[in-house]
Amino acid sequence: MCYSALLHGYCKEGKIEDALRACREMVAQGIDMDLVCYGILIDGTLKQHDTRRLLVLLKEMDDQGLSPDNVIYTSMIAANSKVGNLREAFGLWDIMIGEGCIPNVVTYTALINGLCKAGFIDKAELLCKEMLVSNLLPNQITYGCFIDQLAEEGNLDKAVELHNAIVKGVLANTVTYNILIRGFCKLGRLEEAMELLVGMADNGILPDCITYSTIIYEHCRRGSLHEAIRLWDSMLNKGIMPDTLAYNFLIHGCCVAGELNKAFELRDDMFRRSVKPSKVTHDILARGNHLKNSYENVDQ
Questions:
Q1: Could you tell me if 109 and 139 are in contact, meaning their C-beta atoms sit under 8 angstroms apart?
Q2: Residues whose CB is less than 8 angstroms from the CB of residue 214 and which lie 6 or more positions away in sequence, other chains included
Q3: SS3 for 17?
Q4: CA–CA separation, 290 vs 282, rounded Å?
Q5: Does the reported pTM lie above 0.90?
Q6: Whole-Å CA distances, 142 to 41, 61, 125
Q7: 185-208 pLDDT, tens per residue?
Q8: Which helix or strand (DSSP H or E) is residue 127 part of?
C-alpha cells in the first residue's frame, strides 16, 4: 500500500484523525515515517489551524532525528502568510535559511502574497527582486499576487502595466485576466473590462465562468439586461458551463428588470444542466415575484 497517497487523500478531505490512524498502522507494520509523510500531515494540520497538533508532529519529527525540509517550511510559511501572521512567517523563513533549506518559488510567492494582502507592496517588490537575484523566476501566481492587490487598491493603471508585461512574457492566464476584469468592474469601468475580454481571445487565453459572470453582474447592475443575456449566450456557445453564482447574477438582473418569466426559465435551465439552485436563488425569485405582485396591485 502507498501510505503517502492514502495520507494525502485523508488530509485533502480534512480527515486528520483517519490519517493519523493510518500512520499508526504503518509504524506497527515496521514502516518508518519519513519527511514525505510528515509533510502531508503537517500540511493537513495547518489547513485545520490546529497549532497543538502541529507542535506534536514537529516534536515527533525531532525525536526521530528528522528536520523539516523546504516543503514543510514552505507549508508553515504559507499558512501564516495567508492569515496575515507575517512576523511568524518571516521567523520561520529565517530558521529555514539558517538550517540550510533553500527557499523556492513557492516559498517566495507565499511571503509575497502575505505582504501584498497586508498592503506592503514595496516590501513584496523587494522580495521579488531578491528572487531574481537568486536565479528564481516569478511565476503566474507570484505576479497574480501583485495584480490582485493593485486592483483591490484601485491602482489599475499599474496593474494593467504589470499584466501587459507578463502577457509579453507568456505568463498571463485566465486568473490574472479575471483579477483585472473584476477590478475594472468594481470601479464601474465596464468598457475596459470588455476590452480585456476581447484581449483574452487575441492572446490565446480562454475565459471561464468567472470571467463572464463578473461582467454579466456589472451589466445587470447597470440595468443592461440585453447585454447581460448576449454575453450569457456567448458563454454558452463557447461551451462554458455556468455555475450557481452565475445563474444567480442573471436571475437577479431579470427580476430587477421585471423579466420574471425569463428568471424562472433560467431556474428551470439550472435543473436541466444539473446545477443546484441555492437558497439565494430561491430568495431572489421570491423577491422578484413579490415585486411583480406589488406592481400589479398598484396598477389595479
A1: yes
A2: 178, 181, 182, 185, 193
A3: helix
A4: 12
A5: no
A6: 26, 31, 10
A7: 988 899 999 999 999 988 888 999
A8: helix 121-133
